[in-house]
Design a protein that fits this description.
By secondary structure, this protein is an alpha/beta fold. Helix content is about 35%, strand content about 15%. The strands form 7 sheets. The protein has a 7-stranded parallel sheet with strand order 8-7-6-9-10-11-12, with helices on both faces. Strand 19 and strand 20 form a beta hairpin.
């Protein structure tokens, strides 16, 4: 039976790790040793997982031609990359990326400690011989925010350091031997031959590259002379990358202002080494940046993932090619890199959480799904030919991590303040977009959930299509359409930032609790005016007076007209997607279901309670489908009742086909007696799409359109200045907090 030698530290590893490995690879014999026995055990090993910290006779091991695979428990492979191993057929896989979070956190801690002069403060707190012993003395400090940071080496650790530093509005420059996939928060990602350019421009220089024959001693006095005199040098990589005597010389000659070091050469530094004497400009920690209580859990994770990949014939994570062996790290384009493991690692870390601040219980694709109100149901039609096992756990966890963290960062930084709404597509938050010089702009952020998709590819494809439509809508720039600011993704979760509209959506205003609130808050005379001009009680919810309802619908038609003129169907007209601003104007929002009429998607979400009959029947969706949905909204506003609630006699396709003939019974007499208004409503909701208005502009301006009825109101002296009325009404409701 082939054997597997495991050795992570000085003593044999814990039983829990052995049990996990044995479950993944039951046909292997596991030899669990500590560092004292590792050199001998490797002579008879078929496979090795761990890290030898003691001298090993690699020549003899290679000659025996038995060892097949080394899975390192460290990111660096310099401990085993002797020429004989490099030239052999031994498979080498690293733990690159396993400790990226920890090293990044430690790096940030060291930099901030140096910038804020914390060593001096702590020294004066505890050392009775210090000049300012326990005195309240304000020492000079520096700011990290806004500095230029250069990262030398942009693998797993370098990328994570960049992510951690980005919220400080730093300008991040990076160099790498193989510069690929530049993140948006990195200003420049250059080839390694641009290192001197990076040094000359950076206020902070961070080493995050591996040790090999190319990097050994690369930071010499000439490199330090390229740096700014007031710059900070940071080494969290390997001590031998730096010529230590040259670092001392650079500090003595003021080529740099200071250094923070987690590694040094020699290691440990002798007690009389001159680097200790540069306090407080030099901070030294004893190679602990990669320390973590879960380190070996993570190493076992990547090892087990590679076991499964090896057994299934897949390329293993962090596998060193022949060139990778020579350089000591995985080469881009030749197999899965550290990012594959970060995906696995983050998924495992989040899966362990038992509580989530936000959660959606979603049914299987193709089934109805509740949204913002009890009577609204969202249905997603699925293609039965596609797999529907659901999106990956990693992608779903990324979504919930973003919701729980409540902070999104790319080029900008948005802090979520509170949830504005929730629907079948995801959550909408109010956030603060923060710029420089105290600039703060409230924005709305919609985070698109992957929960309703059959797999990750379907989610990504849908997001790509939505981004394309969103960009087209954003270019329209219509007064009654929501203004989209940008489309973003972080950790593969997609979201849209848009203008925040101060006011209420129509569904929040069509609640009995709104009238109950007004009855308590406004004087009787004011309430009577509201009831006679704006809104009053209805059968199931408040009903809106025609003099206010029709102008609201006209502004919605204007927005729809702008969409329809460029061939876009909104696809989800409903009260919660119609916003009334505090200024009295109307905005049509939420284009998450929009699509181009020339490129109709086979599967799209819609809200059941406001869908036209042809939508429910799975027939072709047209511009007239939007018009019917808006007609249903108008009738609900005028009647004060839900048309297609679960218990309504009109529910379903048949109810929609009969609705036009039932209007005289549904609408109040003051509305039903207006032939112009009745013809308008019937033309909006005609069962046959061809008998509806041709488009939104026709519904507004042509014969029997909304403008015709509004002219009748003017002739009868029944029209009102609806914008001031809405503005005053919403002002009365300024402390109204409807349930989401």
């Amino acid at each position: 039976m082939p054997n597997l030698v495991v050795c992570f530290k000085d003593t044999p590893i814990e039983d829990v790790h052995i049990a996990r490995i044995r479950t993944a690879w039951p046909e292997i014999e596991i030899v669990n040793v500590g560092q004292n026995d590792i050199a001998h055990a490797l002579l008879d090993a078929d496979f090795f997982c761990g890290h030898a910290k003691v001298p090993v006779d690699w020549e003899k091991i290679v000659q025996k031609n038995r060892l097949q695979w080394i899975q390192s428990s460290a990111a660096g492979m310099d401990w085993c990359l002797v020429p004989s191993v490099v030239d052999s057929d031994i498979i080498l896989t690293t733990a690159s990326g396993v400790l990226a979070d920890q090293v990044a956190e430690h790096t940030l801690g060291l930099i901030l400690a140096w910038m804020r002069n914390l060593p001096t403060c702590l020294h004066e707190q505890h050392d009775s011989t210090a000049l300012g012993y326990r005195q309240y003395i304000r020492r000079p400090t520096r700011d990290l925010t806004g500095l230029t940071v250069g990262i030398v080496g942009f693998g797993g650790v370098g990328r994570r350091i960049a992510e951690v530093l980005a919220p400080f509005q730093t300008v991040i420059l990076a160099t790498d031997l193989y510069p690929t996939d530049k993140p948006a928060h990195v200003e420049e990602l250059w080839k390694a031959d641009r290192l001197d350019d990076l040094l000359r421009q950076s206020d902070v220089v961070i080493l995050a590259l591996p040790l090999n024959k190319h990097t050994h001693g690369m930071f010499n006095i000439d490199r330090f002379r390229q740096m700014k005199p007031d710059s900070l040098f940071v080494n969290v990589a390997r001590g031998d990358i730096v010529i230590t005597d040259d670092l001392v010389r650079a500090l003595n000659d003021d080529h740099i202002a200071g250094a923070v070091l987690d590694v040094a050469a020699p290691e440990p530094l002798p007690a009389d080494h001159p680097l200790w004497d540069f306090f407080p400009n030099v901070i030294i920690t004893p190679h602990i940046a990669g320390q973590s209580r879960r380190r070996y859990d993570d190493v076992v994770d990547i090892f087990i993932a590679n076991i499964h990949r090896r057994h299934s014939g897949q390329q293993m994570i962090n596998c060193l090619s022949s060139s990778g062996k020579r350089l000591g790290f995985p080469i881009s384009g030749e197999g899965p890199l550290w990012t594959d493991f970060k995906t696995l690692y983050r998924s495992r870390a989040i899966t362990g959480k038992t509580k989530r601040k936000y959660n959606i219980e979603l049914p299987a694709p193709g089934q109805a799904d509740s949204t913002t109100a009890v009577y609204e149901k969202t249905m997603t039609h699925g293609n039965s030919g596609l797999p529907h096992d659901g999106c990956s756990e990693e992608l779903r966890n990324n979504y919930y991590e973003l919701l729980d963290t409540q902070r999104a960062h790319w080029h900008e930084d948005i802090q979520f303040k509170n949830m504005l709404g929730q629907g079948g597509q995801g959550f909408v938050f109010l956030g603060d977009l923060r710029g420089s010089d105290g600039f703060v702009l409230p924005v709305a952020v919609k985070i698109f959930s992957p929960e309703r998709f059959g797999n990750d590819m379907l989610y990504e494809d849908e997001m790509y299509n939505m981004a394309k439509i969103t960009a087209k809508v954003a270019r329209i720039q219509h007064d009654h359409l929501l203004m989209v600011r940008n489309w973003h993704s972080t950790n593969r979760i997609h979201f849209m930032s848009m203008e925040w509209i101060e006011g209420f959506d129509l569904s929040q205003l069509l609640k009995q609790e709104m009238l109950d609130y007004l009855q308590k808050k406004v004087p009787p005379a004011r309430l009577r005016h509201i009831n006679s001009v704006v809104v009053t009680g209805g059968m199931m919810h408040p009903r809106v007076m025609p003099g206010v309802a029709i102008p609201i619908i006209r502004e919605c038609l204007a927005a729809l007209g702008a969409l329809h003129r460029v061939g876009i169907v909104h696809g989800d007209i409903k009260p919660s997607n119609i916003m009334l601003k505090q200024t009295g104007t109307v905005k049509l929002i939420d284009i998450g279901s929009a699509f181009e009429i020339e490129d109709r998607p086979p599967n799209r979400p819609y809200t059941l309670a406001y869908a036209a009959p042809e939508v429910l029947e799975g027939k072709e969706v047209t511009l007239q489908s939007d018009i019917a949905s808006l007609g249903y909204v108008l009738i609900e506003m005028l009647s004060g009742r839900r048309l297609f609630s679960t218990h309504s006699e009109l529910n379903g396709v048949e109810g929609r086909l009969l609705l036009a003939n039932q209007l005289h019974r549904i609408l109040p007499p003051t509305v039903a007696t207006s032939e112009v208004l009745m013809r308008f409503c019937r033309s909006l909701i005609a069962p046959d799409p061809k008998k509806r208005f041709e488009n939104a502009e026709a519904a507004d301006l042509f014969k029997d359109g909304a403008a015709d009825f509004q002219r009748q109101l003017v002739k009868g002296d029944l029209a009102c200045e609806f914008e001031p009325e809405i503005r005053n009404w919403l002002s009365d409701l300024r402390e109204y907090k409807p349930n989401l």
